[in-house]
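Re: beginner question about structure tokens

> Can someone show what the tokenized structure looks like for a real chain? I only ever see the sequence side.

Sure, here's an example I had lying around. Input first:
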Amino acid sequence: MKLRTLSLLPFSADSGWPEIERLHPMLAKLFAFIVLPLSLLPPLMLYYAGTRHPEAFFAQAASKDWGVIALVFFLTEVGTLLGMGWLIRQIADTYGLRVDGHSAYLLAGIAPIPLWLSSLGLFVPSLAFNAVLSLVALGLSCGIIYHGIEGLGHTHEDATVGSIVQSVIGAGLIAWAMLLMLVVLL
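And the corresponding structure tokens:
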């Protein structure tokens, strides 16, 4: 997969998705070379921000065990990813759109890339900067899900795709909120 291909995914079902479908990447390779390294970024950046400049982000953060938080965050993140692949397939099937298991897990593995990369913003000790960066990343992830379902499901029925995306993004936002609450509570 080329970086140019990945950069087109949030913006069109006709750009990038046909190439990904043609390549039909093995899920094990996707996990080993894209998902695993990128999903390590948020826990590592949480650890960095929590130990280097906790006062910029978290009240009473100096007393937290950031190593444990990073590990739990990572494990929860991987579990959520597996659940999202299953959920994408089930919701698409409910709406009569055939998205096979491979495509569903492929989409679940690609969709969070902007969110994972946005964690690099934690190098900047500014809550406002990171909030804006996270919202932009969330928008890009939503675009990837929308156009991914459209492209991999081979449909341009906006109402069907919109309904599927709304359910998937709703579940994803709940999972994201729970991950952030995990950080606050631990």
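Each token stands for a local structural state, so reading them left to right follows the chain. The chain is about 75% helix and 0% strand.
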